[in-house]
TrEMBL record, chain A:
InterPro entries per the UniProt record, alphabetical: Bet3, NO_sig/Golgi_transp_ligand-bd, TRAPP_component
Protein name: Trafficking protein particle complex subunit
Function field: May play a role in vesicular transport from endoplasmic reticulum to Golgi.
Family note: Belongs to the TRAPP small subunits family. BET3 subfamily.
Lineage top rank: taxon: Eukaryota
GO process terms (BP): Golgi vesicle transport
Classification via PANTHER family: TRAFFICKING PROTEIN PARTICLE COMPLEX SUBUNIT 3
Claim: Disulfide bond is one of the keywords in the record: no
Entry GO CC: endoplasmic reticulum; Golgi apparatus; TRAPP complex
Location relative to the cell: Endoplasmic reticulum; Golgi apparatus, cis-Golgi network
UniProtKB/TrEMBL annotation, chain B:
The species this protein was found in: Meleagris gallopavo
Name of this chain's protein: Trafficking protein particle complex subunit 2-like protein
Gene3D superfamilies according to UniProt: 3.30.450.70
Top-level taxonomy: Eukaryota, Metazoa, Chordata, Craniata, Vertebrata
Cellular localisation: Cytoplasm, Perinuclear region; Endoplasmic reticulum; Golgi apparatus
Family: Belongs to the TRAPP small subunits family. Sedlin subfamily.
GO cellular component: endoplasmic reticulum; Golgi apparatus; perinuclear region of cytoplasm
Pfam families for the chain: Sedlin_N
Domain of life according to the entry: Eukaryota
Biological process according to GO: endoplasmic reticulum to Golgi vesicle-mediated transport
């Protein structure tokens, strides 16, 4: 699956519907496999983590990113480059702590929930897109940034917006600190 | 059948085909005599089945999905539409509603079909479940308001 970096991406795209339906089938199956919402959420997170630690190299190879010098630049990179590249949306970023290590990404549009109107009644605390949190966490870890990533608000649960919170846990290492 | 406010009435049913033919969604405006329209919608299923078998090996294209006027009674006109997956849509309209034209009915069915497709894509919806969706209700409401 490796492609030479810098080469233009294949113009052949996979259908968005197929991707959204696949993700939906994944979540629905997990809901059948696990009774508790927390179990489904943590399973999605683990899966996302597995994707993130692999996806980071693809990201770095295909985007011409410069080294990020701060958490803020990193958060911007995630929102404006990574989300755009993989999901076609650009969440807005804001810093939510004076220490400068907590950020929130507000998703205006979320393609993963295209066909999901609301969560089923018996799944009220399901974090439908928790995979994304795992992906971000895994990718950051591979560039030596430990972070906690969770959904702070979720439109599917009735909140006004969908908000992902990223909390960086340690100072970035100076050396090979290219970021996702 | 008629209240003072409405110039006519419209009733929409979606019936799941194989093989139980029970309704997934029924909506009437106005809501009096809803039971009678359940009955009308149900009896029209036979006509739908007739039409489908009459089409036989004909190529199924968009126009074949629309079955047209199934049968007129003295009070109502019944229209039908069937998807490739054999899900049937039935619409019962007041005969006094002469303003409703064939292509309007066609486009109403197409909207229903599109919204039904969206419902099917919901990973939590199992085919054969009754349809409980706000988005679907809103679409049907606005469609029926235009007609009445």
């Amino acid at each position: 699956m490796s492609r030479p970096p810098g080469r233009k991406q294949d113009s052949h795209k996979i259908s968005r519907e197929l991707f959204v339906l696949t993700y939906g089938a994944l979540v629905a199956q997990l809901c059948k496999d696990y009774e508790k919402d927390e179990d489904v959420n943590s399973c999605l997170d683990k899966m996302g983590y597995g994707i993130g630690i692999r996806l980071i190299d693809d990201f770095l190879a295909h985007s011409d990113v410069k080294r990020c010098r701060s958490y803020s630049e990193t958060a911007d990179m995630i929102a404006q480059v990574a989300f755009k590249m993989y999901l076609g949306v650009t969440p807005s970023v804001s810093c939510s702590s004076a220490a400068g290590n907590e950020f929130s990404l507000i998703l205006d549009k979320n393609p993963l929930v295209d066909f999901v109107e609301e969560l089923p009644v018996e799944r009220a605390s399901l974090c439908y897109c928790n995979l994304l949190c795992g992906v971000i966490r895994g990718a950051l870890e591979m560039v030596h940034l430990a972070a906690e990533v969770t959904f702070l608000q979720d439109r599917l649960k009735g909140d006004a917006v969908t908000e992902i919170g990223i909390t960086f846990l340690r100072k970035a290492e100076d050396k090979k600190a290219k970021k996702k | 059948m008629e209240t003072g406010l409405f110039s006519g009435s419209v009733h929409i049913g979606i019936i799941y085909h194989p093989p139980q033919n029970y309704p997934l969604y029924i909506r009437s405006v106005p809501t009096e005599n809803e039971l009678k329209f359940h009955y009308t919608v149900h009896t029209s299923l036979d006509v739908v089945d007739e039409k489908i078998s009459a089409m036989g090996k004909a190529m199924v294209d968009q126009r074949e999905l629309y079955l047209g006027l199934l049968y007129p009674t003295e009070d109502y006109k019944v229209y039908g539409y069937v998807t490739n997956s054999k899900v049937k849509f039935v619409m019962v309209v007041d005969s006094s509603n002469t303003a409703l034209r064939d292509n309007e009915i066609r486009s109403m069915f197409r909207k229903l079909h599109n919204s039904y497709t969206d419902i099917m894509c919901n990973p939590f919806y199992n085919p054969g479940d009754r349809i409980h969706s706000r988005a679907f209700d809103n679409m049907v409401n606005s469609m029926m308001m235009q007609v009445c």
